[in-house]
Design brief:
The protein has five helices and 13 strands. By secondary structure, it is an alpha+beta fold. Strands 11-10-9-8-13-12 form a six-stranded mixed beta sheet. Strands 5-6-2-1-7 form a five-stranded antiparallel beta sheet. Strands 3-4 form a two-stranded antiparallel ribbon. The radius of gyration is 20 Å and the shape is elongated. The two termini are 33 Å apart.
Length: 203
């Protein structure tokens, strides 16, 4: 399940509408649950403010998304305006998880720490860009960065204590420091980090 910093308390995001598909009211849907049955198991899913509800009639997998039919939506015009709308279910309707399983909503707000106890930022969102979940970590100062949410990189999750332990991939924090120094006008050796120069050119 996914959650962003603006998601409502007590709700978990199950899916997000994408672009319309065809002319008969079908719509692309990005699913944040492991099983497509999540679109049907909890009844109608609702928007963040609870003012609209959507009942799924069918869902077929298409690469990384699902193409779905929604009750009451029968043409392209009906679904085009839904692009980007996130769909939620009340947290207390979700099943209990096994040990070492977590809902994404539980991770938002946790402190990300290194083995020596140093805080490198706060988890502000969870994303999946197609290669697995990524923790969106925002430090108190400077730009944020993405950390793969794998057992190797995040070996410990302590919900009750409010933090996760992180073994960041080699160079991740160094790259963040270089980017911050470049923004602040400090000296950066671009011969050692040509990708930073390329990024500045594009801006």
């Amino acid at each position: 399940m996914a959650k962003g910093p603006s998601d409502p308390q007590g709700k978990v995001c199950i899916a997000q509408f994408g672009a319309a598909h065809g002319i008969r009211g079908e719509i692309r849907v990005k699913l944040f649950a492991e099983e497509p049955d999540a679109l049907f198991d909890y009844g109608a899913l609702e928007t963040a403010d609870g003012t609209r509800q959507f009942e799924f009639l069918s869902a077929r997998e298409s690469k990384t998304i699902f193409v779905c039919r929604i009750k009451g939506l029968t043409n392209r015009n009906d679904v085009e305006a839904l692009n980007g709308v996130r769909l939620y279910v009340d947290r207390d309707r979700l099943p209990e998880l096994e040990e070492e399983e977590f809902y994404h909503s539980d991770l938002i707000g946790l402190d990300a720490r290194l083995e020596d106890g140093t805080s490198i930022g706060t988890i502000v969102a969870i994303h999946d860009f197609g290669a697995g979940d990524m923790l969106d970590v925002m430090p108190k100062r400077g730009k944020g960065y993405y950390i793969p949410f794998t057992r190797e990189v995040v070996p410990v999750v302590k919900l009750s204590e409010g933090y996760v332990l992180v073994n960041p991939p080699e160079g991740l924090l160094d790259e963040a420091d270089e980017s911050e120094r470049a923004q602040e006008g400090e000296g950066v050796d671009f011969t050692q980090s040509p990708e930073l120069l390329e990024g500045l050119d594009k801006e």
